[in-house]
Amino acid sequence: PNGIDERAFKPASELQKEKSRSAWGIPRECFVIGGVGRLVAQKNFSLFMDVAVRVLFGNPSAMFVIAGTGPEEEVLKEKVASLGISHRVRFLGHVSDRLALYHAFDALLMTSDFEGTPMVLLEAMSCGLPVVASAVDGIAEVCTDGHDALLIAPGDVAGFAAALEGMLQDDGLRATLGRNARNTILERYEIRHLVRRIESIYEEVLVAD
């Protein structure tokens, strides 16, 4: 599987979070739900917007932030405007400093219809972010529902919204999911461990020959 250097993606301190948000003009008091990826059909950011409407209706302190570009960008911006939530949805475009991006988030939302083993997921988990994501393909292989993420059936707008609202209202849930997410990375996806596993396979084959 893909691996990640946990030393490069660590949880944010309060100072780092404040600095990251300040760079993008994101209010410190907001609960920031982030999405990261190319703005293409596979990622289903249209569903992301439908979820945002539901969550924002009862949680005015929430803000949805999207990092990425792609062919659906203008259509998505038009949808946000038509839904009347432009003041609580921020498009950041391409962001090269992904660590600062994760440090600005309180949670990661992935509404993809299908995935491999997404690096965004591994990076966010390594940063200790609680995740709400589609229960598809590589995501379901990495995450265990209720342990290190909340996994939702793809396309289930109400399910995604309910999971996020639960996070908003439960500090303990967020902390537990975030802590377990980072532990999952340390135990199974840390790049140095993966390299050692690959080396051991080569050594076994060489001995067998």
What's the quick description here?
By secondary structure, this protein is α/β, with parallel strands linked by helices.
Low-confidence regions? none
Estimated share of beta-strand residues: 5-15%
- If helices are DSSP runs of H or I spanning 4 or more residues, what is the number of helices? 9
Number of strands: 6
Major sheet summary line: 6 strands, parallel
Strand order of the largest sheet: 3-2-1-4-5-6
Shape assignment:
globular
Q: Structural class given helices, strands, pairing?
A: alpha/beta
One letter per element, helices H and strands E, the order comes to HEHEHEHEHEHEHHH
Could you tell me the radius of gyration in angstroms?
18 Å
N- to C-terminal separation? 26 Å
User: Whole-number average pLDDT?
Assistant: 95
Helix content: 40-55%
SSE topology sketch:
Blueprint: H1 14-24, E1 31-36, H2 45-58, E2 62-67, H3 73-83, E3 89-93, H4 98-104, E4 107-110, H5 119-126, E5 131-134, H6 137-142, E6 150-152, H7 157-169, H8 171-189, H9 191-208
Parallel strand pairs: 1-2, 1-4, 2-3, 4-5, 5-6
Helix pairs in contact: 1-4, 2-3, 2-7
